[in-house]
Amino acid sequence: MEAVHEDCIVQIRDDEPGYNLNKFCIPNHYMEDLEYVFIPHGLIMDRTERLAREILRDMGGHHIVALCVLKGGYKFFADLLDFIKALNRNCDRSIPLTVDFIRLKSYCNDQATGDIRVIGGDDLASLAGKNVLIVEDIIDTGRTMQTLLNLLKQYKPNMVKVTSLLVKRRSQTPAYRPDYVGFEIPDKFVVGYALDYNEYFRDLNHICVISENGKEKYKK
Hints:
The protein is α/β, with parallel strands linked by helices. The chain has one domain (3-217): Rossmann fold (3-Layer(aba) Sandwich), CATH 3.40.50.2020. The chain is built from 4 helices and 11 strands; from the N terminus they run βββαβαβββαββββα. It has helices spanning 41-59, 74-89, 143-153, 212-217, and strands at residues 3-6, 9-12, 34-39, 64-70, 97-108, 111-119, 131-139, 159-168, 180-185, 190-191, 207-210. The strands form 2 sheets. Strands 1-2-9-8-7-4-5-6 form an 8-stranded mixed sheet, sandwiched between helices. α1 (41-59) crosses α2 (74-89). The longest helix has 19 residues, at 41-59. The radius of gyration is 17 Å and the shape is globular.
């Protein structure tokens, strides 16, 4: 994979050809529904470990509440926390780490609807004075994340940082840029590693580009 590194972000080029599906373990029921493997699982894990180091370096002086944005963020969230916990165990200055979950709804098929709903979450008042790490799977327009950040402000956390495994590169200036980014990708609709298309493809280990056949097959 050809990628360039700027400001510690891995940027995948617009002309990245990806990898042939036959070179990876892909469930047979999805073989006709994908174009190619875009980011292999091993590369995701290595990049996630690096993000964990950066997050603990910047936020590790205080109790961290890790807030997972469901559903697409659950795999990234689990793997990121495993790396953070491993680093925390081997650090002289270990800190408490607690978790919470929230869901944001903004997509129908492969299009953002503009109608963003916030669902779930425990008593967010408990975030007061805490360092909050929001863990998201992908930032597209940024409007969804802005909605969540505005919601959290009223609870007066000490610090709020956002990490997203993916950020889409768009021609216009993005509305929001997270603090920690795994990969900056072209404006393609990707699935796998818990990213879905109408709830399908979450069971893929790799991040793949969906085909037109797949979009039509699983369209609502």
